[in-house]
Amino acid sequence: MSKRKKIISVAIFLITIVAGIIFILEPGNKNNITSGLFTVKNISEVSKIEIIQNSEKVVLTKQNKNWTVDGKYPANKEAVKKLYQLLTETKISKPVLKSKKDSLKNMLINKGKIIKIYDKDNELIKELRVGDYNKQIKGTYMLNPANPEPFAVNIPGVDNDLNYRWNTNSVYWLNPEIFSYKPNEINEITINYTDTLKKSFRLKISGDTAFLFNLSDNFRVQNINLKKIGSYLSYFMNVKFTSETADTEKIKKEFLKKKEFADITVKDIYGNTKNVKLYKIKNTDNEGSFDLNRLYAVINSDDVVIVKYIDFDLILKDINYFIN
Prior knowledge:
Elements: H1 3-25, H2 30-37, E1 46-53, E2 56-63, E3 66-69, E4 73-74, H3 77-89, E5 91-95, H4 98-111, E6 113-119, E7 124-134, E8 139-143, E9 151-154, H5 162-165, H6 170-173, E10 177-179, E11 186-192, E12 201-206, E13 209-214, E14 219-221, H7 226-234, E15 239-240, E16 243-244, H8 248-256, E17 262-268, E18 273-282, E19 290-299, E20 303-308, H9 309-312
Antiparallel strand pairs: 1-2, 1-6, 2-3, 3-4, 5-9, 6-7, 7-8, 8-9, 10-15, 11-12, 11-17, 12-13, 13-14, 16-20, 17-18, 18-19, 19-20
């Protein structure tokens, strides 16, 4: 290579380096705004998050370091851990092609999930829009309305369907425990089998003794086995659901017209009541039959989840189980 060509090559190399530095430092460049556009600088300030899409809305609130869902239930610790990842580790992975910017921006503004992040004084820290996950580029489309550019974002090294993580189904955020009572916290249990009322019962706990009533006639049963009742109360310490459901509102409306398989109500010593209605799941592979492993559960006439028979087997006793 001639001396002239070497000089030209070095010059081109230096120009490329300088251009790269200018590109990185230029305001509005994706690398320059990665750390702040879709993340929160001080995570400890975050006290409330709203996730909204169409008629669905979830409100996550932090109270004394603990997160609650819609002001009713404790949040799932694993889901909260992923939430912190979203707020601190989301990175811009790719800019959007110029030809797609306008249409994608309109989609995010008009149809995307709305994320509102508030501080302890209920002041808005940041508002975001979340769109679909794109498998080809392994990124989720997002927009910060404070910046005109939509981007594909991800969290390096993890499953990057961030649209799913910003979930509008409240059940996704719930602690999976349905019943988590200590035996001495239970005041009353009622189980109603709608098709077999004679097996249904109401169990009232009073100190070291218990009273058992047949729901068919509200007649008090004599000669009950207190040892079995003591064991039975312990079965309510750790009953969990398996997963959330899609189309929760649709399923809930459908169930309101049907008769449940079993209706369970637990009252605790603090005056709280929890009701769980269980419904059989139709077997799609065999018309007229039902899934033998899973059930739908509607909690407090509100949240719909999927549970396993095996997790409810110990508490779905009939009245004869307690009689000597």
